């Protein structure tokens, strides 16, 4: 009786902890709306599915919600959502031992999601953009100082940096008149761009404004594409005295295939399942953009930040740690199963076999790689800087494929350019 109660307790613990976060199907639906430039629909989809993020991933819910807008439809709730996500991430420094223990015998979803280094950097970036859209330069500068402090510490502790964010900080400081801070960030940006030359991103070029000029500087930032997502690929080896079976499935396959493999593991009695994440590219057609001022073509954007590169680089750096963690978890699950069978078989061999089958199937079913990420981030940020005469202008952005065919276009009407001042516009595309 005690053995069965222990088995029931283990099963309940595993099932309670075995959450898996937003599904691939859900992510594809949200991305599909974004690709259609229907941010109202993607926002509604996220709002109606808050529960699937779970208590441990609430910060990702607010981040995905906060990015569902373009510059033509700015929401005042954007900043609120981004701040909520930031507050949750700050609280995660208090680590939970129980959650860490659960990750060793269930899966990594039992732990709250902690933003990757580049994701945290672009949380600052989005907050700064929100302040700029609210024409609140003072708070944008405060947020920029926080971002620079984070980048400085990141560089000191890990050697990592983000060239575009350093460059962006220098421009915000210039707008504020903090010339010393702007110069330091600009130098950091130049060093970082040269260090991460393999990302194919280049430092944006800023035209010089001549003395006595009646011009202002317009910056157009084009946030393009969608960052890759992670899928779970699971390999299972099951065996008994008659032979062994090898099963594979992924989070892109049907649920039935995963169910079959889990049932197979339970039937064989002995099984080890290892689930590892894999990168899945999100295709996008738009590869560039062209800027028109009052109907005249003036510039094309260039790649200033390659977030897909940071995503893949971080994944490669963490993969060995993920592999070891998954292998250790598989071994622990196997040992727990065999010990439970041993204890229950003392009184009844049939009960021991049943316990073995149940736990093997249960542990196999709940084995899943951690595929969480801030999946609504753009794949890249493109930028163009143009000097424009003071006054009110119409700014049109054409979105181009790799052959420079126009796929879409968006127009900013009545854009005020002030002499000697800096004006920011940004556009989000995912097609």
Low-confidence stretches: 6-18, 96-106
Instruction: Work out the strand percent.
Output: 15-25%
Helices and strands, in order, run as HHHHHHHHHHHEEEHEEEEHHEEEE
What would you call the shape?
Answer: elongated
Q: What attributes characterize this protein structure?
A:
alpha+beta; Serine Threonine Protein Phosphatase 5, Tetratricopeptide repeat; 2 domains; 4-stranded antiparallel β-sheet; 14 helices
Structural write-up:
With 431 residues, the chain is of the alpha+beta class. The longest helix is centred in the last third of the chain and has 39 residues, at 307-345. The protein has a 4-stranded mixed beta sheet. It has a 4-stranded antiparallel beta sheet with strand order 6-5-9-10, with no helix packed on it. The protein has 2 domains: 2-114 and 196-429, no CATH class; 115-195, Serine Threonine Protein Phosphatase 5, Tetratricopeptide repeat (Alpha Horseshoe), CATH 1.25.40. The model is unreliable at 6-18 and 96-106 (pLDDT under 50). It is built from 14 helices and 11 strands. It is elongated. The relative contact order is 0.16.
Summary of the model, kept short:
The protein is an alpha+beta fold and 431 residues long.
Topology, please?
Layout: H1 2-17, H2 24-35, H3 39-47, H4 50-53, H5 58-66, H6 77-91, H7 97-105, H8 117-133, H9 137-158, H10 163-176, H11 179-195, E1 215-224, E2 229-240, E3 243-250, H12 255-268, E4 270-280, E5 288-293, E6 296-300, E7 302-306, H13 307-345, H14 349-366, E8 380-389, E9 391-400, E10 406-417, E11 422-429
Parallel strand pairs: 1-11
Antiparallel strand pairs: 1-8, 2-3, 2-4, 5-6, 5-9, 7-8, 9-10
Helix pairs in contact: 1-14, 2-3, 5-6, 6-8, 8-9, 9-10, 10-11, 12-14, 13-14
């Amino acid at each position: 009786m005690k053995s069965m109660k222990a088995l029931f307790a283990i099963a309940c613990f595993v099932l309670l902890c075995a959450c898996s976060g937003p599904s691939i199907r859900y992510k594809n639906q949200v991305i599909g709306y974004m690709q259609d430039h229907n941010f109202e629909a993607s926002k509604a989809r996220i709002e109606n599915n808050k529960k699937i993020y779970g208590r441990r991933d609430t910060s990702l819910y607010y981040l995905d919600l906060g990015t569902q807008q373009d510059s033509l439809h700015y929401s005042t709730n954007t900043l609120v959502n981004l701040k909520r996500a930031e507050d949750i991430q700050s609280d995660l420094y208090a680590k939970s031992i129980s959650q860490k223990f659960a990750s060793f015998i269930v899966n990594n979803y039992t732990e709250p999601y902690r933003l990757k280094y580049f994701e945290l950097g672009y949380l600052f970036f989005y907050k700064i953009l929100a302040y700029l859209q609210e024409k609140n330069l003072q708070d944008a500068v405060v947020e920029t100082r926080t971002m620079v402090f984070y980048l400085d510490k990141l560089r000191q502790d890990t050697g990592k940096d983000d060239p575009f964010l350093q460059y962006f900080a220098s421009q915000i400081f210039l707008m504020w008149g903090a010339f010393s801070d702007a110069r330091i960030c600009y130098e950091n940006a130049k060093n970082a761009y040269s260090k991460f030359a393999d990302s194919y991103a280049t430092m944006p070029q800023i035209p010089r404004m001549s003395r006595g000029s009646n011009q202002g500087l317009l910056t157009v930032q084009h946030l393009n594409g969608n960052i890759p997502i992670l899928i779970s690929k699971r390999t299972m080896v099951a065996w008994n005295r008659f032979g062994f079976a090898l099963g594979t499935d992924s989070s892109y396959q049907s649920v039935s295939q995963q169910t079959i493999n889990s049932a197979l593991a339970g039937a064989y009695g002995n099984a080890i399942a290892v689930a590892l994440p894999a990168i899945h590219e999100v295709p996008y057609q738009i590869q560039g953009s062209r800027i028109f001022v009052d109907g005249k073509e003036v510039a094309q954007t260039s790649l200033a930040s390659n977030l897909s590169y940071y995503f893949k680089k971080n994944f490669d750096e963490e993969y060995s740690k993920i592999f070891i963690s998954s292998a250790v978890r598989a071994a622990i699950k196997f040992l727990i199963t065999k010990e439970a069978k041993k204890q229950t078989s003392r009184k009844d061999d049939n009960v021991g076999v049943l316990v073995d089958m149940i736990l093997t199937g249960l542990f196999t079913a709940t084995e899943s790689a951690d595929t969480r990420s801030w999946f609504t981030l753009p794949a890249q940020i493109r930028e163009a800087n143009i000097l424009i005469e003071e006054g009110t202008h119409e700014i049109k952005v054409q979105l181009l494929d790799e052959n420079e065919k126009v796929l879409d276009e968006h127009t900013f009407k009545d854009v005020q350019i002030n002499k000697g001042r800096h004006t920011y516009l940004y556009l989000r595309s995912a097609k």
